[in-house]
Amino acid sequence: MNPAYSYDVQLPSRFDPEKRYPTIFTLHGKGSNEKNMLGLVQALTGEFIVIGIRGDLPLGAGFQYYELKSLGNPIRELFDRAVHKLEAFIQYATEKYAVDPGRRYLLGFSQGAILSMTLALTMGDRLKGIVALNGYVPDFVKTEYTLKSVENVSIFISHGEHDTVFPIRIGYETAAYFQERAPRMLFKTYPTDHGVSPDNAQDFANWFNQDAGESDRT
């Protein structure tokens, strides 16, 4: 089986092929690439497998997973395609590497956050959790997709208070949407634009360690 995307894999520093590891799949923003997400999870590479997924559509010097009609308005067929291909890739990587299927996480920024939240809704508890940084859930996902329960999915959502791409109200609306559906949802804001502050990165690193550790003990 060939992978649906180009990708980069970071194995834990003391990797034991007999073990299964919590795994973070990273999804980058529009026009970026998988390498740009690595710095956000560097502190986690000792205990987690980290798999950076590169969008398959070129955009400038970087890549994207789908194209837009306008800001906040994905081309539906390309978006649907990305969701299906990412689900297939997660399964591919789970079979190829020492991934613990009970501790699979997504970490996405902007376009990657939009896809991470969508995948949480389509995969349900096949994912252990997601971290979504500065994103939203498209309306057509909420109303036209077949959605799974996220009651048992751990969700960390954050948003920049001064985000000039997706205004902060979008962050609050997104948090409210998940608040009704996901008891294990945490929402935090940071005094940033459309980016990730060191405090934000430290907070979700602590969140990953705590959540994966709790799963390991149960």
UniProtKB/TrEMBL annotation:
Gene Ontology terms, MF aspect: hydrolase activity
Sequence ranges assigned to domain Phospholipase/carboxylesterase/thioesterase in this UniProt record: 63-206
Alphabetic keyword roster: Hydrolase
InterPro entries given in the database record: AB_hydrolase_fold, LYPA1-2/EST-like, PLipase/COase/thioEstase
Keyword Hydrolase: yes
PANTHER family: LYSOPHOSPHOLIPASE-LIKE PROTEIN 1, LYSOPHOSPHOLIPASE-RELATED
Entry similarity comment: Belongs to the AB hydrolase superfamily. AB hydrolase 2 family.
Name recorded for this polypeptide: Esterase
Originating organism: Paenibacillus thalictri
